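On clarity, I found the account of how folds are encoded harder to follow than it need be. Since the whole study asks how a given chain folds, the encoding of that fold should be made plain. For illustration, here is how one protein appears when written out as sequence plus structure tokens:

:::
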Amino acid sequence: MTHAIADSRVPALLDFLSSSPTPWHATASMAQRLEQAGYRRLSETSSWQLAPGERAYVTRNDSSLIAFQLPKGDTSLSSLRMIGAHTDSPCLRLKPNPAQASQGWLTLGVETYGGVLLSTWFDRDLGLAGRVQVRHVDGRRETLLLTVMRPFACVPSLAIHLDRDVNSGRAINAQTQMSAVVMQLGEEAGTPAEAFNTLLIELIEEQHGVRVADVVDFELGLHDLQPAAQSGLKGELITSARLDNLLSCFVGLEALLEADGGQGALFVTTDHEEVGSASACGAQGPFLADVLKRINHYVGLDSEEGYQCLVQRSLMISCDNAHAVHPNFADKHDAGHGPKLNAGPVIKVNANQRYATNSTTAGLFREMCREQDVPVQTFVSRADMGCGSTIGPITASEVGVPTLDVGLPQWGMHSIRETSGSADVAMLIKVLIAFCNREQLD
């Protein structure tokens, strides 16, 4: 029997995926990794003092992050090699007043975040995660991460005996059929709202060791508790929640950390891509441009013209997973553009600018893949099907930087559990390291 595909990075990837149930958790994990590698945390509310060879990062909303390295020694910053991804994934988010009583059970009302593949959420062990703002007994308010990594809730399906046509196709109503069942209510529980508030206070105490006076507000969602895994008979697959797009976050961060530091490089991960990116910390917001302008200022290019020159000499590689051809649904792909798992990174192309790739940016990426002996694939949607989008076109529109869209192929995009190829991870990292180290971007 052939041995399983081995890659020293896979265990770290699996740990990152499993421990990042929300954008806030993913950002905190990446920040910790950066600090362990010697990156300095900057604050947007303070003045920045940068130096040659500087390695630093900054976050916004605790859910978006930008890390950058300036050239070492006397090398001036003339361009930046940018890698972009997003931290959010489709999921079920709790409503502000989620607690309900139904047939003697405490259930939680949810709203869908992004394009959730709803059927995959039934009958799973679900945890609870996000951030909460609490009031301590002394009146002080604080924001805390909440991470419930044990079975907290489930969304039970309806028996086929009560819905004989379910396998013939049935629409799922997110308002009435996706509430999460949490616990059986007793007489001592009080109202559903009181029961849920008490439960949150207990969960916070369990994790943080402090009994808070009240939960002022929260942003919480449900998440699958099955850990990420390397699967397949020969270890060919990575299966996990949130591969779209934490896989790209991991790949981009690894490339930045393994770069030689000789060139200017920047890694940006933004929130809210799955819902349009229109926020202060999304790709359509000013976060990236704000950081670029501050870098431009502190490296002595403090003019609008200098900023425009820096942007136009740079290149953004937007990394977001691509649709791999499915063994059971091969007809959903254009016959000449069906990326396969473990066959290399994918250049994503769309004539209507749903992806930002053009022949110039794609040509450079193909050249880098050739130089690194990495195979490269191309994805184009069928002409009779719609096409998704990424942060690529948004970043190109907002900042003006030349951009292309690439990604690793995957199955089951937006499912509660997605699948990618384990061999593809190292291939894209290898190309992105070469990109970060590349002297010329033309």
Summary: The CA atoms of residues 45 and 58 lie 11 Å apart.
